[in-house]
Amino acid sequence: MTGVADRVAATNAPVGSGLARASVAVVAAWAVPGLGHVLLGRLRRGLLFGAIVWISFGLGMAHDGRLALRDPRQPVLSALQIVANLGVGPADVLARIAVYGFPAYSFHSVPGPRAGDPIEETFRNRARTGVSIYGTAYLWTAGLMNLLLLFDVWDIALGRRP
Amino acid sequence: MRSHFLHMLLYSTLVAVFFAVLVRDTPSERRRLGALLWLAMVGGGLGLAYLMYPFPA
Fold first, then answer.
1. Which has the closest alpha carbon to B22: A104, A90, A34?
2. Which SS3 state, helix, strand or coil, does residue A70 take?
3. How crowded is the C-beta side of A68, counted as CA atoms within 13 Å?
4. pLDDT digit string (tens) for A15-49?
5. Residues of B with CB below 8 A from A49's CB?
């Protein structure tokens, strides 16, 4: 239960007040899933949500989830996929450095069977592992859940949520 | 883990707990919504799989 204890703690929240407080909390929530709630005094809620997002992200990485790259042939769809990935904050950048060697967000060339692009090679090798579809679902879900949590943090910070 | 079924159970659990805590405030309401979401996802998945069973892979 995150009710009474959290609400009491919220009154002693260490972050300032008003829009500045809400903005700081939202940025913190994006940067480290769960941290926004913790800063607002919702410790248990923050830990639970943080755990769910991090578990989903970890499962995604462990199952070779697709770290989306901007594809000129599907600009809108691939951009939305990148937004979903970026929902987990800087962890996405670190994941791309670990996988691609640097924070890659687009193919170097138009993807196709001819290309010898190392980023594309890595991208396709991960997709071929057989578990990548599961990993991709976990990664996108982690990002989208964290984006939803930003609204929750915003509402809590502005007192719109009990 | 390569089991589609276990992934479905795990994924449904994560999503059900997430939304139950996000949109409900009391423990009983959360349990009810969480169970409903979980059953809808798992039951829906199994139901769809059953309906698709006669079709060739």
1. A34
2. strand
3. 22
4. 556 899 999 999 999 999 999 999 999 999 999 99
5. 18, 21-22
Between residues 17 and 56 of chain B, which touch chain A (CB distance below 8 Å)?
Answer: 17-18, 21-22, 25-27
Q: Residue B43, exposed/middle/buried by CB under 10 A (0-12, 13-18, 19+)?
A: exposed
Partners of A70 in beta bridges: A106
Token couple for B34: 């969480």
Handedness of CA A6, A158, A89, A13 (dihedral sign): negative
User: For A123-162, how does the pLDDT look when each residue is reduced to its tens digit (9 = 90+)?
Assistant: 888 888 889 999 999 999 999 999 999 999 999 999 988 7
pTM of the model: 0.86
CB spacing of A141 vs B21 below 8 angstroms:
no
With a cut of 0.85, is the ipTM above it? yes
A49 min Cα distance to partner chain B (Å) = 7
- The four Cα atoms A26, A27, A28, A31 give a dihedral, to 10 degrees, of 120
CB A69 within 8 A of CB A115: no
Structure-model confidence comparison of residues B50 and A117, the more confident one? B50
What tokens were used for B18? 């997430």
